[in-house]
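Dear colleagues,

For the upcoming journal club I promised to circulate an example of a predicted protein-ligand complex. I picked one with flavin mononucleotide because it came up in last month's discussion. The inputs are reproduced below in full, followed by the predicted structure.
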Amino acid sequence: MKTKLFICLFVLALLPVLSPAQEKVAGEQLTYKLPAPNLKGTVSVEETMATRRSQRKFLNDGVTIENISQILWAAYGITKPLDFPQTRGGFRTAPSAGALYPLEIYLLVGNINGLEPGVYKYDAKNHSIVRVIAKDVKKELAVASYNQKMIEAAPACLFYSAVYSRMTKKYGERGRERYVCMDLGHSAQNVYLQAEALHLGTCAIGAFVDATVKAIMQLPEEEEPLYMMPIGKY
Ligand SMILES: Cc1cc2nc3c(=O)[nH]c(=O)nc-3n(C[C@H](O)[C@H](O)[C@H](O)COP(=O)(O)O)c2cc1C
């Protein structure tokens, strides 16, 4: 009887660690498998377009792992897996010139219940996030963005960078000057509309000091920073 009680208590204590939304994968890099996205929302796409506005004042809490999973999926989730290596997993929620997908998306976590603070990279193929920096750098990024305090205040923030060579290899200068930012716009608009459907807000932020931001984010040489999109209740 005592043993059964002990086992029950042990399993109960483990539940938060083992829930699918918070599955921590052991290893050097902290990885969270995100819950599957919901494909049947309750707010129409027309409503999201009619009510969407850039929001700049956020509460510091109230964003869940489910919200984060949904927003990352809307941004660049895989909707049709393919074997072509150039697509790095398959067709996505957002269109891309030549299906070359030049964007990388990071998640800056400040205050999300169940996620350790830090900088995570979105792995679309596995719909998971992998921590690449073990501290919240939102405050530093806010300073490097001409003191746009919303970056620091929001509990989470998406961060976009691009590997231009993925586009220029095929499209040359046209890829650099046009297609990368066109791709970014498609993905970021998905984020705006998905956030709105979840009754959350965001704001596209393009004004920052590139070199400082690149250093704070410890981006690989080939990646250039493009956008930040704080996410929060407002
Ligand atoms: C390329 C781009 C860069 C932007 N950068 C900033 C920014 O750095 N800070 C900010 O507060 N808003 C920024 N915005 C948001 C615009 O100010 C906003 O979209 C515009 O005022 C229209 O308002 P709405 O989005 O609510 O319709 C940016 C928008 C775009 C498209």
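Two points we might discuss: The domain at 20-232 is CATH 3.40.109.10 (NADH Oxidase). The pocket of flavin mononucleotide is lined by residues 53-54, 56, 148, 203-207 (CB under 6 Å).

See you all on Thursday,
B. R.
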